[in-house]
């Protein structure tokens, strides 16, 4: 079948769609490695609060805890337990050393290391998933009310809306991939 374009154009189009589709795919369900290259540790006094503050978590994102399971673990706990570093009755416990936790709800998700002393020395993290809509929201004022007991929202909605838009585009990612397959098939 001939689209009325030269082969060169076909290839350029295919390449373009491939790149677009690939970049869109990446932004669906982002994976966040806690502590980035440091991982989940007590070494180096990683500031997990600061780490989390630089991220815009969304429902569907994956939180990845990477650590040596001989020395650490991951427990999801309540806000009160988070504040008190109380690891006596965790909601869930993860011990593989490579734990990926998919965020399925909005709001706060509190985690700590249950090894004695580790939470006290800072091995705890609060993953706060903001309630964002797919519709672009004006970013004039940080007016979205934080839920009770939370610190104020760090940044207004610019990043969040951008992220949301990507997500919307993400739904088109599969269509792009299909088009790429079709176009490539005809070259
Ligand atoms: Cu630990």
Automatic annotation (TrEMBL):
Signal peptide feature range: 1-29
For bias kind Low complexity, which ranges apply? 137-152
Q: Which PROSITE patterns does its entry note? A: PHYTOCYANIN
Q: Which residues form the Phytocyanin domain?
A: 30-131
What's the superkingdom here?
Answer: Eukaryota
SUPFAM superfamilies linked to this entry = Cupredoxins
Gene3D superfamilies to which the protein is assigned, alphabetical: Cupredoxins - blue copper proteins (2.60.40.420)
Give UniProt keywords alphabetically. Glycoprotein, Metal-binding, Signal
Q: Where is this region: Disordered?
A: 137-156
**Molecular function GO terms recorded:** metal ion binding
What is the name listed in the Swiss-Prot or TrEMBL entry for this protein?
Phytocyanin domain-containing protein
């Amino acid at each position: 079948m001939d689209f009325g374009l030269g082969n060169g154009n076909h290839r350029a189009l295919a390449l373009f769609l491939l790149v677009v589709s690939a970049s869109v795919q990446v932004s669906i369900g982002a994976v966040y490695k806690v502590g980035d290259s440091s991982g989940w540790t007590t070494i180096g006094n990683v500031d997990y609060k600061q780490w989390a503050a630089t991220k815009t978590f969304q429902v569907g994102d994956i939180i990845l805890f990477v650590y040596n399971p001989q020395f650490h673990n991951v427990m999801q706990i309540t806000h009160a337990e988070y504040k008190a570093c109380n690891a006596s009755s965790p909601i869930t416990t993860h011990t593989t050393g490579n734990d990926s936790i998919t965020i399925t709800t909005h709001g706060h998700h509190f985690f700590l290391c249950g090894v004695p002393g580790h939470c006290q020395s800072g091995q705890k993290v609060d993953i706060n998933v903001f309630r964002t809509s797919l519709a672009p929201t004006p970013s004039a004022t940080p007016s979205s009310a934080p839920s009770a007991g939370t610190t104020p929202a760090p940044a207004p909605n610019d990043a969040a809306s951008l992220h949301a838009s990507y997500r919307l585009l993400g739904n088109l990612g599969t269509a792009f991939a299909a088009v790429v397959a079709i176009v490539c098939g005809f070259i």
